[in-house]
Amino acid sequence: FSPHELRLGREVRMYGLLQLLYFSAAALVFEAIECVTVRVRGDRSGDQTQRALLPVRQILMLSGAGVLFLLALWIQPLAANLAITVAAYCAVMTVAVGLRNSLKSLIISKYFLVLAFLVTLSLGVAIAAPGLIREIVALAKERPEWADSGQAFGFFSWFFLYYYPAFTFVYLLGGVMLVRRYGKPAAFVLCSFIPLIFAHMGFFTGRVEERYIFYILPYFFIGACVVVEAALRSVLRVIASEWQRQSRAVAVLIGLALLPAANLFAHTWLPESRDMLRWGYGPNWKTVAPSLTALTSECVFMSPWPLHVVYYSGEFPDYILRKHQPEDGEGPTNRLGSRSVPVRWLYEADEFTQVVQEHDDVCVIVTDWAFNNDAYIDAGMRQAIERLLVQSEHDGDQGVVIYRRAK
User: Fold this and answer.
1) What's the CA gap between 165 and 158, in Å, rounded?
2) What does the alpha-carbon distance between residue 252 and residue 163 come to, in Å, rounded to a whole number?
3) C-alpha dihedral, 335 to 146 to 154 to 163, nearest 10°
4) pLDDT above 90 coverage of the chain, percent
5) Nearest Cα to 81, choosing from 191, 230, 6?
């Protein structure tokens, strides 16, 4: 019932899919590492069959994890952080093996071997392709012009303490209880969240928004909810005991008293969940669709975000307004159904002015946020648009602005 899970999950963007692919790949990696034989008492042949199938099972799991990981990496580079989780888990388990056994057992353990492989691979990449490492660091550190400003540590601390205060304060207790109850799977869950959230707070500082930690939020809730489950189980046990002792009035009173106490965990995010219908990333383009389709076919469309115009009007923009070079995934042509549509870019106000003067009917469709964001439309372009075009009225979401010039 997290509002962020619901809001980001329902958007037609990569974050919900990234969470699913990342979680599934991580689960398969853990299963591959922890694959064990199942011994059948009194059946030696069955035991040998299980041992023979073990490598095949591991290969299948690693293959599935690899496919899911590559898909996740394709839609969002943050998926590469799965290596941090695996390294952290193997480091923790290596220490655990070393504390319980000899040094020789530690060195030959699967956890030490996997950890050594990851460290060797990282060093090899750093030596063979130092430029790639610099690009990764730049990607993690540099903040795009369109991104909101803010300190990563302060923002993510505020995010968890404001939206999930009770879950945050009981997380460590929940982690201890989780490990005592489930052992290795619990350790993997903790390693999937704790190292990565501190990495986002201290290293991946170029993206400071909750959607960039969306892929690891399930591990946070799993760790914290153990305490919630234990508390509820204890209260329900008391209610059942009172009910069996015929103290039904007491049992009902305890149940009613549980409702305001539950607000300790539901505080902040529950009211926002009730307002989920009005939540969304950006304005509601669907309400503006009638105004877009009503524009004449002779109108020259311009927009910094072509996909919105295509989806809600059926026409690809004639020009794309963009201060900088195309973003990832944008090129000299775009696909519109079976057609390959050439893309024409306008970067400068002079280019825009020339195009406007050459056509009788020009229309600029832009969100209010992008219009006032220098990463998409700089001050010179904004002044040219407001000087040459007039803002048109429409009945849709006013977060979408339409500027038009019709002679």
Assistant:
1) 9
2) 30
3) -50
4) 11
5) 191
